[in-house]
Description:
mainly alpha
Amino acid sequence: MKLCYILFTMNSLENSLNKIAETILHFDEASLTLLWDKYKSRMEHFSFSADWEKSVIIFSIINSVRVKNAIFNEQMLKAKTDGVAAAIKKPHSVKPNLKLVK
Length: 102
């Protein structure tokens, strides 16, 4: 019975996190960036309060969106350059630049 409750709780927690992530994915990075300084400042001024804890979470969410977008853009650029490189194709006679690592 206890295991069933734990599984239900974990499933519920995961569902909640998925809903939060889905909502956050719709946020515009430019709008979030406008709030970055505000929540950075709040986070830097520690207090034993729920408001401080929320500020840390919000600041982390803003940074998470920024990181996600940076990774996404990097991968998009890589995919474009890989597509161009594949179109050019290197000759088979070129040896890979390998180095022995001990």
